[in-house]
Design goal:
five-stranded antiparallel sheet, five-stranded mixed sheet, 2 domains, 241 residues, disordered C terminus, elongated, disordered N terminus, alpha+beta
Length: 241
Amino acid sequence: MRSLLLTAVALGLAAPPAAQAAAFEVPSPPTAGVSLTVNDDQATMRVSAKTFRTIAGRPALMRCFGASGGEAGTGGRVPRKRAPISFGFVSRAEDFCMLATRGHPSVDGCLRAYAQQTWCVRAAAALTDAGRAYLDEFARTAELSTAFTATESGPAYGRTMLQTLQADVDVDVVGLATADAAPPHRSIGYFEEGTTSVIATVLADGRVRYVQRVADVYSTNDPRIPTNLEKLSFFTIKGQY
């Protein structure tokens, strides 16, 4: 018995610590495990079991969008038992769709569906190449916004800003050799020299989006970057971010 107890203690001491959640989680549109079909102009969405458990029986919006503007959709209630979700609305020539339920970024860390509203995106999927490009672009914006927010508090004690981002942001962060270098796709790049710093990301088509700080002056080529991460919204009227 004594040897068994000692073995148990030894195993307990050898167990690795539980992984800690990142301090800054990226509010990306949830696409994992989501599929979307359109038959007779009606959109039907299937979501992962995990997502379905969180939305089962709740009032929801299903809306489909054109990447360059325009939308269609309606509300309904998600079935209580897992099943494909369709609210019977007509969808024509849209590029991607989302399913949203009530929530708020400050309460459950969700992604706003629209600015100034309490609908949060629970699932999203593309129908066309334009839709897939939109989802990729938005995901990169979300990563860039999150990393930018994380830098506003400065580096953690005993760490560089790069090390702080690598520890605190829920995305792969790599150091950049120069201010105009590009990180791998789906990663955030960080460069710092003197009073200049750059946070960068790369879209699927190779374009680079960045936020640059020179002294206390910021600039960006991403029009969706909000002044506050909680204001980031999934769909906006074109030109009104």
